Amino acid sequence: MGIKQKTLHGLIGVLFASICCNGQNATQILEKTIARATQERQHNNPSRYQFKVLRVSHKLDGQGKLKKRDETMYENILIEGFPYEKLTQKNGRSLNKKEKKEEQKRQNRFRKKITRGEDPTIRDTNRNFSINKDLLGRYDFVREGIEELEGRSNYVLSWKPKAGALPVNRRIDHALNKSEGRIWIDQELHEVSRVEFELKETVKLWWGIIGSIQTMKGTVQRQEVDSGTWFTTKFDLHLKGRIFFNSLHRKQQIHWTKFNRFSSSAKQNIPYKRNFYGKWRDIDKDCQNTRQEVLIAESLVPVTLDSKGCHVVSGKWFDPYTGRTFTSPNDLDIDHFIPLAEVHRSGGNIWGRQRRQKYANDLSYADTLIAVSSSANKTKGDKDPARWLPSNKDFHCEYVQLWVATKEYWALTMDNTEKETIESILQECG
Predict the structure, then answer these.
(1) DSSP structure class, residue 301
(2) Taking Cα atoms as reference points, which of 419, 121, 408, 376 lies closest to residue 270?
(3) Cα–Cα distance between 423 and 325 in angstroms, integer?
(4) Is the pLDDT of residue 80 over 80?
(5) Shared-domain flag, residues 293 and 245
(6) Do residue 260 and residue 305 come from a single domain?
(7) The whole model's pTM is what?
(8) For a designed S-S bond to 113, which of 9, 120, 130, 166 qualifies (C-beta 3.0 to 4.6 A apart)?
(9) What's the CA gap between 95 and 99, in Å, rounded?
């Protein structure tokens, strides 16, 4: 290609970038990316796909020469519906007897968490990094332009820490507050395609008592592995520092490959545990948890709060289940209109932790939660309309209509008996 042609192509590229990015500043691009990332976490993709994970660790000496290389291969499987990375190979060979025994112990610990009602996939939040709104408060982002990666057009943003004191709520924040880099965001889907990061200052561990990190540099690559589904496919990290009196110098590579959807038979049912959906939360940090928010929203008169303004003391509520009116919140339960156990049977078993807890505390969809008499809620339990209907017969038609609408909103399924009962009731409603 001649000089004139190169110049022309360059001018076209600049012109295209200015046209396509008009009105899209760095903050707007990131807000859409954060929304997409939040949605993806709720879909819990690791529970939907089988894949292999190759981890390669290089231990280096002070001059950067290789001292030891370790390679491990894992396969993402389902254990009672939860994604689990099973160790299958070490250094290119099958596991020996001792290694198989250790892997079995690890699986047993995983299963015990499920038995106790815990979510075994929860990671240590002190080490996790994710695309969320915290990034906008921590870094200054600048849109640099557009580049092509893997045949797709990407926004390119650079980032560096904001000036002044930055929050330190987790151990990883010490490193995040001293890192800068670039991020590539798919222009069409607002998925993160690539991240490059580098530590710009030494980070001390426990004021230098435990050690320090002088070098931390890495890249993350992500790709669309299925229609609309993205996964991290490669992670490279170079780390150099000191732990107590020993030097630390390592390079680590992780590759994710061979993505395939699990067959329906592989998606085992996760036994329902109330813990999976969490407790009432104070989402907006105003000292009123979800229960109190619903009581306030559904009271027919302004409520009376306690001296701290955190708990409802009195109000007036109409319970459509019984047709009765109540003035004391002590007589009321906040009912998950689709009971949690029923949600779990209807598709919630493959939800991620965030989506489960969002449902349990959802205030955005009007019919997810409803204030009703405690006795009616206990009678209802986890039953669907085929097994329970409110004692207030005037509410039957509306009840099943709301049931269908709420299940559709949360993309939950209905079994045949449930569906037939609802259809029969709706026919009588006219």
Answers:
(1) S
(2) 121
(3) 30
(4) no
(5) no
(6) no
(7) 0.67
(8) 120
(9) 6
